[in-house]
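Deliverable D5.2: sample structural annotation.
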Amino acid sequence: MKLRLLLVLGFCSFLLTAVAQQQVKIRLFNQYEAPADAFTLDGVAHKTASDGSVTITIPPGADSVTFAGKEYAATSIAVNQLQEGATITIQKQFTWKDILNPMFYIKYGGLWLLLFIIFAETGLFVGFFLPGDSLLFVAGIYSSNLAHEFLRFIGLGEFRNEWLELLVLVSLIAVAGILGNAVGYWTGRKVGPTMYHWKDNLLFKKRYLHEAHDFYEKHGGAAIVFARFLPFIRTFAPIVAGIVDMDRKKFVYYNVAGCVAWVVSMIFAGHFLQIWVKNQFGIELKDKLELIVIIIIAVTTAPVLWKFFFGKKAPAPSKD
């Protein structure tokens, strides 16, 4: 009789605990709008699905729970915010690889940092590692938010028009890129004359200057345009153009044409692909940014790597 009573009481206790505990399905992202991946909830390990969704159990009587993890700062969230289907954001701690993430610049610097990055990548020697292509593509996805930073700055923050927003964003970025290349060209012009007096060494050969000069005489326009679409190359192409004294008017023309083509193609691709994919498949590209960045980097760097490893080497000059 006592055993039966204990079993009944134990079963009732189990039912009360099960009822008291609440399970909800939420979506968990970091501040860069990427799924938070592995995390802990009050010390219990969890892992999100590819879309950031995860089912969590809220302890009975809890007013709040704490999300944390190896990469995440501890964040307390009130239980009343953890409704079914809610989206929760927790803070990812900074790591140096974040500087390759375009969302890092959009999140913490917005439009103004974006413009500086485009200028620096194409105008400053040290800007070769910055994420130009992926940054512009992601900027296209967030074109409305970025454009309105400028529109608010000039007192038109309440004005809403898709094409105006795109025009504003493309124009500002194009100007930044054109000025960046111009600075690179000017730097090359200043440094170039002295380089022709340098002695050959392990890293520098004077014949490289003459070969570059001949190349820019024949293909300089195409080089300036196509370099815009190639990481690393777009940083050094205008500098080399200045060093070999490429015709200034020719450089200016192809600088403007190449920059406008690059900015328009990347911004429009991000903006309209986001709309099309969402309408056709119900998928938010914002949820797939890490994958998109990897694809863009792979596609844009593939020609450079192919040329480096498999391209035909120029024949050594004759000593006769």
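Annotation notes: The longest helix spans residues 162-195. The radius of gyration is 27 Å.
The annotation will be released with the project's public dataset once the embargo ends.
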